[in-house]
DNA sequence: GCAAGGTC
């Protein structure tokens, strides 16, 4: 029997589609990567009985990156990233082993049906899948077609079955347009990011960001926030005056002035004086108009994100996580969609009836059936977000329930009637001046029944009157008011702007917003308002000054337009790519040449690196004090040599007893993660310039292979780490009296010999004479920290003794361990110093 | 240490 492999974009979809196509009778097993499942059943395909294997990927299989030295942040001139730097596709998530998984499943298959999402990205993933599986599949028989593409727009029985009956083929042009987008984003984004980061980080000490990123989506997103900030800053409050009239007949009534306001006090006073000549207000007209508030369109992702942010106080990233969970648990339909129109075959009535227990859907049901939803936009992706089954608060959890509740109410609202109300307006004249008073009365609540927050507020009823009636004028006065500045952009408004300008997708909008927060460009204030930081403001103002294109929202849409031409087959992939890269390469060079313009703005907000920080340790070159800059990324700066030296992050740095590195005379600093944690000395020069061939950038003395320096791994290394493959436990001579050794690769810390007066590696140790735990008044002992019987109780981490070769030889854990530590030390690991390791091995075995 | 796009 021949086999048909079918691949969806995500595990949940593979399951749903398999269930539909097999009519619920498929068998399921886990794939080798643990993330994807394979659903198998038999059926017919191109006129034969076949075995179907339905599985999925997890989004993109591959992602694009630079290779070799171009991958490393500081290795090359960022300008080279525009053309010279070669790129490669590598597995998007190596942990998932997706290529291997697909190949194992594709082996021996005769046909493949691609069920990836029906958008450009999905089309691109089709070819990623094909690249992986085609070599493993059986050869086709003659000219027989073996590759098929299913096109579907919803996960309903009819849609999926229709798609299966009308299989097409994958669209190479659409896939290519995505390839082009990936390459453009990578080259442009990384070039600008690297240049900016390097330039400003080397100049300013208190930049509160370890990475100054740039991207065609994140930068315009930040631009929107700063634009609003600028409006607030340049806002000048203006005084204005309003004439207020209070009248009464049976009850008092406050009227609105027809001129609304004037900006001149004297003019306002003049109107007051004129109005005051009359004792009575005359009713000129009474109008009543029936008005309607429209029911909402069906819910798509961005609208859900907007409401979640503004009404539920939930950020977009968080909202999507919750929505994703509700979806995989079957409570709501797929939460990433642009569509606001229900498909023709959508079971509105059934969906509504599911909610009968929680909500009262009767109001939405008319005698002849359901109230028709408004006509929305069909983006051809997934149906609008709707509830899929009834749920209760207890099973969903707080935020899950709040989001589900909203989605459900929104759905019911879309199939409910509009809200109808009566607007009454009474026009008055008081002498020469016109005033009005208006009020709304509800006729029928319609959809606001389920969305009460949009309801017509109950107002005090207007007095019943008609044309020609008169009211007594109780008071006429001039009120002084001031115009108010706009407020900071709310997250919800930002989402609207991004959507309007095509910045990001429904899936990536939350990511971009998150990005500009994490990079410290904006902060989220109360009410989920986004306030740009100094850094964010300076960046955007700098782009405006040098090349506004870099921050304008049009940057993305212009590129997208070109990409669409590729997708439609109207433009050549290479030509579009080259052309666009050329433009941005020029923009990049212009930006680099003009960076002084942005720098002028930086100077105002940030302090030069030479003026920042406190003197800490001496430079090995000029022997003057270097300054320690604590702001992230913390570093040392020698103002005399004008050099900056990186340091290990996420810990405290202090001077290490004015000891010097024997290689370069830089004073050592001590990095500490916390009082009971790890600490090790670091040579600021060696840290960035590895002194030996077997060392890499970013290593402290605890990884240094110097043969004789008293701080090196060679002098202080004790034994192989008990947890990780490659680490060595290194004695920390600063840790007394709570002596410890710490792995130089992972987080393992071994406490030992507490209270010991002095501990030295392989030489001797002293206990304070009066409190020695050693027997017979002994105060000194030398031995192996792991297996010496005298030391046994003084070493805290039990793993340590159990994994020591002597104990393993005893058989207690033989064959049961994780297979680590069995390898003789020093062998096959060039990173470890041979002499020291050889000595240790000889000692242990 | 970089982009944006999928999804886990």
UniProtKB/TrEMBL annotation:
Keywords: DNA-binding, Isomerase, Topoisomerase. The keyword Signal does not apply. It catalyses: ATP-independent breakage of single-stranded DNA, followed by passage and rejoining. Signal peptide: none annotated. Residues 363-381 have a biased composition (Basic and acidic residues). It comes from the Eukaryota. Residues 171-588 form the Topo IA-type catalytic domain. This is DNA topoisomerase.
